[in-house]
Amino acid sequence: MKAEERKARGFEARTVEGPRGPVAFERWGEGPPLLLLAGLGSRARLWGELPRVLSDRFTVLAPDNRGVGGSRSGEPFTLEGAADDAALVLAAAGFASAGVVGVSMGGLIACQLAARHPEHVDHLVAASCAARLTPHHRRVLRFFELAFTRLAPAEAAEALMAFAFAGAFADRYPGFVDQAARLWTLAPEDLPGALQHVRYLQSGWDLRPVAARLACPTLVLAGELDPIVPAALTRELAAAIPEARFREVPGAAHSVLAEGGAVLLAEIIEFLGT
């Protein structure tokens, strides 16, 4: 996107200094605040065009995860620490609370944010994430570890695309998947932070006690064909959250927001406005 269009969209890149280290984030648009929390190894850029699209309706805030991008230095990554980083971004942007959308590891962070800082979360959308570490997840995380350590960053991103999108979607939109691979390709200096995410998750997590405390309206999304986080495990998370709505997207894999298309995006926007 050209600099002129970014300015027209109210784009701003900022870094806020917090007790755990710097947190970089992007801000787009004007309107009710919406915080986007991305997954493992992800900078704000992973969202691609979504912040620009949503900036017509929302003030979109998208941070770099601890350990990568402008949030590279500071304390080691934890879900609790990442939730505190997210709360810091909201405060720095001048908002008391926001709608929050978290995807994959970002969904875990979003749940922690809603539990640790309930006053900051109006509505919660958690997509493609599981309540706990399972033997399947250990194998998936081992795949990430091997990809990060044995492949070049672009090769690792290409390998992930085989699991990130369902085959029918990838065949129909090959250019979109190619662009996703480019966005997800790690900068060499981000590799240590991404590996730290992997190793933290390998140590195990169980969000069910946390989920039971969530009081905000919550929508949980899963891809029917997700090989990274099977839909049954995302359904388990939804069952642990009081009165959460669960939506399984037919034919989708891990990148459920993209694969669900305009229909799912409209549903999310409607939910955030209730």
Secondary structure blueprint with pairings:
Elements: H1 3-8, E1 12-18, E2 21-28, E3 33-37, H2 50-54, E4 59-63, H3 79-92, E5 98-103, H4 105-116, E6 121-127, H5 135-150, H6 153-164, H7 167-172, H8 174-184, H9 191-202, H10 208-211, E7 218-223, H11 231-240, E8 245-249, H12 256-272
Parallel strand pairs: 3-4, 3-5, 5-6, 6-7, 7-8
Antiparallel strand pairs: 1-2, 2-4
What does this structure look like?
With 274 residues, this protein is of the alpha/beta class. It has one domain: Alpha/Beta hydrolase fold, catalytic domain (Rossmann fold). 46% of the residues lie in helices and 18% in strands. The protein contains twelve helices and eight strands. An eight-stranded mixed sheet has the order 1-2-4-3-5-6-7-8, with helices on both faces. Strand 7, helix 11 and strand 8 (245-249) form a beta-alpha-beta unit. Helix 3 crosses helix 4. The longest helix has 17 residues, at 256-272. 48% of the residues are buried.
